[in-house]
């Protein structure tokens, strides 16, 4: 039997509602939705669990996010991009999804194709054919486990188990509904928080500076830049993008994609030529397996240590269950400065910063501690900025006008413990068939900064007599 709805004293003033979401969880939910703002419309403990109270405050409000809380501490709910209107119709909504916080981050369950997302009637909100919130005007969640629901012809709109979604605890402590709105647009009065010249002349200048670059130490002919980051963040895509710029066409030399596990299984060192018949440029981009949360999966911390110190050869195939062991002959002598890594670049997906798990964050922190101990220069490359912010997707020149991208730069700075000035947002080439000026300028600016940081490292580790006068 469901417990009775508690009596609620109506609100008689216009003070803002207090959200039950922590700032961290609000950011993580926004991370599922992109560059949006959440405005609390309905709070069941304040307005009551009755359907009439919900519809009075939430109908015709556009996209909404429902967030429920239960006695077991689960936070879960669903998103719909279609208004509530009490139309009595089955609603198709390809953008709808369910979510639940697991391990500190929300996982997302998307609507199955050709299924109805919800039924728009005068009751409390429901998702798919089975999941009802505040069922029967009571503080409970109800999962319909068979036929007889509104969607008998289209079952399994969302594939989930009640145990996973809300721990089988049907008793709610709170239910909130938020209006989801795109963040404010860029205005002509806004000033960029970083200055960039978006011109062909600037692109040419950057390319020429990179062509003419010479490492600070004569014994190093080409600086080695190591790319480290989670699976799918864009490490291999960054090399392909830089290679494309200097080749003058889109290239795909390094394997890249969006698989759940790393497509890169070897340690690869990628030199870049100045055109098809040109000479190698004075840097090498080193690609690795992606970092993964699970123990025994992805790149091992000990492997990274071996790479940093120059012991791992090109095309060495990683074994996630067994760290790299250098052969005795190589282990007996220290690697030369030419063989070591001179700059480390952490590649982070801008769309997943708020969704970074504690395990992955700790793994990155372990890597940073190792890199710090060796005094190697470090930069963060924040990729997929166009996917993270609609303003940037519309025009890449909005990147340093976007408050959302600025907030993401600050967030990744805080999470990884690097200065904001060391976080560089970029867009890799992924689906384009032609090179694009704005994309080139961002990528080349980032590469130029990596070369500068490599020189800082070389200047620090080399004796003064080894440096040119």
> Could you tell me the mean pLDDT?
85
Major sheet size, sense and barrel closure: 7 strands, mixed
Range of helix content: 25-40%
- What is the terminal separation in angstroms? 85 Å
Q: What is the 3D shape?
A: elongated
Give the neighbour order of strands across the main sheet.
15-13-14-12-16-17-18
Figure out the total of helices.
Answer: 13
Work out the strand percent. 15-25%
Unreliable spans: 1-13, 147-155, 257-262
Radius of gyration: 26 Å
Write the layout of secondary structure elements.
Blueprint: H1 23-33, E1 36-43, H2 44-47, H3 51-58, E2 64-70, E3 75-80, E4 89-91, E5 97-102, E6 105-110, E7 118-120, E8 126-127, E9 131-133, E10 141-143, H4 162-166, E11 172-182, H5 200-211, E12 223-228, H6 235-247, E13 266-273, E14 280-287, H7 301-308, E15 316-317, H8 328-331, E16 343-349, H9 358-374, E17 377-383, H10 385-388, H11 390-394, H12 403-416, E18 423-425, H13 437-461
Parallel strand pairs: 12-14, 12-16, 16-17, 17-18
Antiparallel strand pairs: 1-11, 2-3, 2-11, 3-5, 4-7, 5-6, 8-9, 9-10, 13-14, 13-15
Helix pairs in contact: 5-13, 6-13, 7-9
Structure in words:
This protein has 469 residues and is α+β, with helices and mostly antiparallel strands. It contains 13 helices and 18 strands. The protein has a 7-stranded mixed sheet with strand order 15-13-14-12-16-17-18, with helices on both faces. A hairpin with a 7-residue loop joins β9 and β10.
């Amino acid at each position: 039997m469901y417990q009775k709805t508690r009596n609620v004293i109506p609100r008689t003033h216009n003070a803002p509602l207090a959200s039950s979401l922590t700032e961290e969880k609000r950011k993580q939910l926004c991370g599922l939705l992109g560059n949006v703002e959440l405005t609390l419309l309905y709070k069941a403990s304040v307005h009551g669990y009755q359907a009439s109270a919900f519809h009075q405050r939430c109908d015709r409000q556009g996209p909404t996010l429902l967030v429920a809380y239960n006695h077991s501490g689960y936070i879960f709910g669903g998103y719909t991009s279609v208004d509530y209107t009490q139309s009595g119709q089955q609603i198709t909504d390809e953008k709808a999804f369910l979510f639940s916080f697991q391990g500190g981050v929300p996982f997302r369950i998307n609507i199955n194709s050709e299924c109805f997302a919800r039924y728009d009637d005068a009751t409390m909100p429901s998702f798919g054919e089975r999941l009802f919130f505040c069922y029967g005007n009571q503080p409970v969640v109800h999962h319909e486990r068979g036929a007889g629901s509104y969607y008998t012809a289209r079952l399994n709109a969302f594939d989930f188990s009640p145990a996973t979604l809300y721990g089988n605890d049907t008793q709610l402590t709170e239910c909130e509904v938020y209006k989801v709105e795109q963040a404010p647009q860029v205005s002509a009065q806004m000033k960029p928080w970083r200055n960039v010249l978006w011109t062909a002349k600037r692109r040419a200048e950057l390319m020429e500076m990179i062509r003419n670059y010479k490492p600070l130490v004569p014994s190093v002919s080409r600086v080695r830049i190591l790319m480290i980051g989670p699976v799918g963040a864009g490490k291999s895509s960054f090399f392909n993008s830089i290679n494309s710029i200097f080749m003058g066409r889109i290239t795909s030399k390094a394997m890249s994609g969006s698989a759940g596990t790393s497509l890169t299984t070897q340690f690869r060192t990628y030199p870049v030529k100045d055109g098809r018949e040109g000479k190698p440029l004075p840097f090498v981009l080193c690609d690795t397996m992606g970092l993964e949360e699970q123990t025994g999966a992805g790149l091992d911390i000990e492997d990274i240590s071996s790479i940093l110190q120059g012991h791992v050869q090109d095309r060495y195939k990683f074994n996630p269950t067994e760290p790299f062991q250098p052969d005795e002959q190589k282990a007996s002598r220290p690697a030369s400065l030419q063989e070591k890594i001179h700059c480390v670049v952490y590649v982070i997906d801008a769309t997943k910063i708020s969704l970074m798990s504690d395990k992955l964050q700790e793994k990155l922190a372990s890597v940073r501690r190792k890199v710090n101990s060796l005094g190697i220069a470090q930069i963060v490359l924040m990729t997929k900025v166009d996917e993270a912010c609609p303003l940037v997707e519309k025009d890449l020149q909005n990147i340093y006008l976007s408050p959302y991208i600025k907030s993401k730069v600050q967030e990744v700075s805080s999470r990884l413990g690097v200065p904001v000035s060391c976080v560089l947002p970029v867009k890799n080439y992924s689906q384009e068939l032609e090179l694009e000026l704005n994309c080139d300028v961002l990528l080349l600016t980032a590469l130029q900064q990596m070369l500068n940081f490599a020189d800082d490292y070389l200047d620090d580790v080399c004796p003064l007599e080894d440096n040119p006068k």
